[in-house]
């Protein structure tokens, strides 16, 4: 009953669920928590894929996901939020109810366009790719629909999780060097974004990116 | 059309109908000179007999039985009747194309039975109701009322386009007069105007529809129209035209979204026994014609039509129930709930059409059965609720729920009957609404066996919309019952209410009993419906879906589930007894009566103060609030304090506030908190909360209509310039055009 | 069918199932409270506190408002009995539910709805302003949660082509849930959300508070006392256990469940006992996350609740559509 492909799909589905929960979140600290749990499920997914395809590099990739995305980045983001004391709520362009509805539509769309014989023989688990696609689109949607810079970073990180999920599901893992490079990239990106947030905060007294349009004058 | 010496049962039915018509026409002078009460008793007896007769002829097929009576030829000569087929009668006139034909097949007999039965109940009810409401012209009411019922009967029995239209118009106009019955009230006038305009727009589309059918077949007879469907002589475009015209024409009468605007205005303004008829059966005559068109005149169509109906049904459902939740006027709440039920019926109709178009006749029969059963159930419980609201309104002289309350102690019997209606309308077991809704749920689930992806994906979502509507309907009816019957009286009117008179209670009691009976023993209601469904789909599924003891199962082929209301009830009773005994043995059965906790404040019922003076003051305060007399503000503060205690209960407006706030975008609400500044501005300021719930679409139509009328009136002002010469020019111009037209015809001919 | 009903063993198993539900319902509530207390670093109430509360309340007299009508006297019984009747449709540890022939899963939802209806009427019967507030909010939450509940149910009804609960459970136990893993996850989460909403647990409503403006369920039964309060409390325990049972049998379809059904002829006491123990274990597994959620989240503002329910609705729609695609 419980074959390994199903289990991979199950874990992938949890990654997607936490991406949807991300759009419904009202608070910054909750968003960070959701991101870290999502990354945890991502690392489990990659680990199980490693078991399935007997690929040692995937174990390392899984471990790196855990170390960087579950522990380091949330820790760092929490530190930034505490430092600049973001106590306010998340300010959306599109309100929560509609965001969730749009996210649902995105998910169904992602599954709809990839149905049928969409290069299915290449996949470890067939439904992981549409899941990953949905996560990518939701990440983009979060970046579009939220005003706060920190949530846009979280949207970007969600997007990155989706890309990694898609990559591992199609190619049975990237080459290790590329993998490490990507992780390093994301980590540095997150740190730089954090620093940038700090600068935005000090110069605009707010994290609202809609106020940045004042810069053009 | 040869003459025979045998007459069939249909002729007998026709004779009975015509005799009733003439009896009422003849009895008008008597009614005026004598007693409306007598006439109502007389008519209710006739309707009872008629409904029994119609039910029996439906069950045992009297209409098709050839009977040889002694004076059969003379009888048919006398009434000018010609029977063409077994259940079809034609009455020829000298005007070409105008034939009065009547059809007594199972479908029309079913609807005729419902009309006659509801007519019986509401005549019985009106016997006391007219005197409770103190209407001035009671005789006029009786004439209009009977005419309305008879015109509805003729509508469903008509088998010819033109005669149908005539009776349809009579029905509309008589119901218009009945809506306008309390013509002194501004509200009534507005509602009646809106109603007559909208219903005539609907009739216009029906007329176009019939003309189109005439163009296609060269006849107005329903018989010929049936051949059109069988022979398949309709193109897709023709089908679409017919579909759209039926939707516009009959949908206007049924109150589908977004043509519903008249419904929640007109139904509450009519006298309650008429509202019961209008909501209970008149709006369903439109559904009746839809069934005729979609299953008899149009035979083969794609699933798109059914899906459109399903979609419109879902929209009607959700819009109606959301608006029902926020109404303060109890009859308007019920009217919106009727709209919701029309939505449910349309969903069942749409499903039946989808199955029909996919040649799944078994499922079609099941959905059809659900549809007709829901029509019957809705006629029963909505009739009951409207009659109950009439009882409330006649006793308390208000329909505003914010002024009701505590009626359960003033009118215990009526409150119990109303509770049954409320439970049935909220589609809760073990009452009849639940069974038909359950059947529609099953039809929706069975739609997943249709091999079309859109239907597979959407039907469960429609089912969830229905679940949401079920929950919100429960909210609306908890509000209707809880606010108006429970708690304390919110006004002097509610406090002085008494139990309504005997016949009002009896007529409501019959309906309540039937709601319960059909909920428990649903097979009784499904038996006549099976005859109708068999005639439409050629499949008899009664044996398959009912087993005795009130248990219903779905079709064996698609076995989805079972429900047995009787089993539910029995289990409930057994458990109730067990729990009661357990508490009796191990627990404590004592009850101590004490006042309700009000956070440490004194909490006395204002209207039950022993001190006569205070209660008198309260009455005065209630009246002086309106015209701001300020003659006796000596102890106004005391009085206000007293009335506030009773008004500290949750009000109807307050009850629906969360709903209003969550769905605020689809409501057209005006809320205002007015500070009456001239009184006290800083210490205990007097504030007035004004709340008005309108219909979003009414607002939309109004703005559209006002723009349109503005254009038209500008055009009119331009044409009718007030210069005499231009008028003469118009006359000359018209003359010349006429001359050209005539000469062209002359040369062409 | 009638033979089945008259089969003594089946009837006995059915009765045993209801008794199990009735017996463990207060225990599960105490269990959740205990876990919460432990997580907070308190010692917590004893695990048998639920039974003691109920028994004590039954032995107290009822104080009834002078404005109350017959609704107040019958509503507690109807609420309790409606929950009990719907429990009868529910196969607990074996597919033989006592009254599976009287109703399916739609009937279960509507029978619970009857209880909600009468509880809301009870809230409005005492002319208290809190009662109306509670009724208004509770029935709104219930009605907003209903479509999600139905969609989750339909996702499984369509998968198994039946609405009969026993049949659904048997099919899921036989075929497993992992044919549609994504649907499964989303249905599970949607079901969790509506279980929380329907039972008035923390992000939606706080079962412990008696602050007038924040409570929903408790405001309705504010005037309840004595045996009436006992019945209300007991029915809320039972409702929770019904939802947990549904979840545990749908989402964790492992155990001796189907084994009992096939070996009804080789009826053995030991198998039944084993099944019961396994069932209780599953219930405890599903009750624990509720305690964790309650401890880690704050109660939502009332007008945030629709957002929360909307999330559940979208999840259930995704689950259903992905199954259909």
Quick check: average pLDDT of chain A?
80
Largest interface: B-C, 86 and 89 residues
**Overall 3D geometry of chain C?**
globular
Q: Element order, helices and strands of chain A?
A: HHHHHHH
Question: If you had to describe this structure to a student in words, what would you say it looks like?
Answer:
- The complex is a heterotrimer of chains A (217), B (749) and C (325).
- By secondary structure, chain A is mostly helical.
- Chain A has 7 helices and no strands.
- Chain A has one domain (4-205).
- In chain A, 45% of the residues are buried.
- By secondary structure, chain B is mainly alpha-helical.
- Among the domains of chain B are: 606-694, no CATH class; 700-748.
- Helix content of chain B is 70%, strand content 6%.
- In chain B, strands 3-4-5 form a 3-stranded antiparallel beta sheet.
- Chain C has one domain.
How would you concisely characterize the structure shown here?
The complex is a heterotrimer of chains A (217), B (749) and C (325). With 217 residues, chain A is mainly alpha-helical.
Question: Notable features of this structure?
Answer:
heterotrimer; B: 749 residues; mainly alpha; three-stranded antiparallel sheet; 70% helix; disordered N terminus; C: 325 residues; 13 helices; globular
Please specify the SSE layout and strand pairing.
The complex is a heterotrimer of chains A (217), B (749) and C (325).
Chain A: H1 4-23, H2 28-53, H3 56-83, H4 96-113, H5 128-145, H6 149-171, H7 176-204
Helix pairs in contact in A: 1-2, 1-5, 2-3, 2-6, 3-7, 4-5, 5-6, 6-7
Chain B: E1 7-8, H1 9-33, H2 36-60, E2 66-67, H3 72-79, E3 81-83, E4 88-92, E5 99-103, H4 106-132, H5 138-157, H6 161-179, H7 186-217, H8 222-231, H9 236-254, H10 263-269, H11 272-297, H12 303-326, H13 330-357, H14 361-396, H15 407-410, H16 412-425, H17 432-446, H18 453-485, H19 492-495, H20 502-520, H21 522-537, H22 542-545, E6 546-547, E7 551-553, E8 562-563, H23 565-586, E9 591-594, H24 612-627, H25 636-647, H26 652-655, H27 657-662, E10 668-675, E11 687-694, H28 696-719, H29 724-748
Chain C: H1 2-6, H2 8-40, H3 49-58, E1 62-65, H4 70-88, H5 105-125, H6 129-160, H7 165-175, H8 181-198, H9 217-220, H10 226-251, H11 257-262, H12 269-296, H13 305-324
Helix pairs in contact in C: 2-10, 2-12, 3-10, 4-5, 4-10, 5-6, 6-8, 6-13, 8-10, 8-13, 10-12
